[in-house]
User: Fold this.
Amino acid sequence: MTMEEIFKGTKSFKQEVFEKVQVELNQFGLLIYNANVKQLVDVSGHEYFSYLGQKTQQEAANQAKVDVAEARMKGAIGAKQRDGETQKNAAKIDAETTVYTTQRIGEGKKEEVKVRSEVKIYENQREAEVSEANAELATKKAGWDRQAKVAELEADKAVAIREAELQMEVEKKNAVRQTEKLKAELLSKATVNYEMKVQEANWELYKKQKIAEAALYEQEKEAEGRRAQAEAAFFARQQQADGELYAKKKEAEGMIALAEAQGLYLRKLLESLGGNYSALRDYLLITNGTYSEMARINAEAMKGLQPKISVWTNGGTETADRGQSSNGAMQEVAGVYRMLPPLFETVQEQTGMLPPPWMGKLTNSSGN
Assistant:
């Protein structure tokens, strides 16, 4: 089809397109139930369809003029051909010709008005489509701007989040490094203390060896002057000195082994407690009887003060002066565990130390 045929016969063009497309879709089992073909419009600078509309309008006007001229020609020819007829037929023909001419002129004017109306309608539709396209373009631009701003904001937030994550990793690394450094320092101190203890033990052993050697030398010198009478005594003393030297050596070796065992013991305890030095300290204080010694010292410090001692039992609180006996001894024994919180408070007030977590936890008067 030509462009003029497409422009004038939109329905025929639509049907032609659907038939061609349906042929291709049949091989996929698809069927077109309904479809629309967008109206042909001009682009800026190329008013082809506008000119086609003007052309159609002008052709209609020209056709009307041709029809009028043809009617006049037929009227004139008919008048000439029927010149010989009667005046009645001539008058009748003239009248019919006049009526026909007037009708044709009216129809021509109607067609002209109709074409102008169609052109005006087409122009209005064109303006509406342009306005709609402009509105759609503005809407899309606004959406693109919004998407760009959202993407930019998301990128900024992603960068900030990544920076926070990296900072967190750095802080974790620093914490691990500080922990390792503290462990190394404590291990170094423990190693130095161990080496110092070993050196001290070696020095004590060396001094004892020198003392023993000096004694042995002195005894040898004395034995040389009294060889005959002192050989037995000298031998006995020499055996005794050897025994003492051997005992001292064994004692030194035992001290060294004990120091190594204690070091290994402390390391194993620290590993078992997950590197918690506070828990290790509390454990050592308990096993070494530090708390018992503190209680003994506090008890001795209170001698002669005649304090009032409160004993918490199942039956309430009993107060007795020092040196007086109180009733319910078995109840007091049964209430030993109830005496632990006041004891812990006393130790905490006087020494500032808290009991280990596995023994209990002090609470204030409100129960917190």
Remarks:
- The chain is about 80% helix and 5% strand.
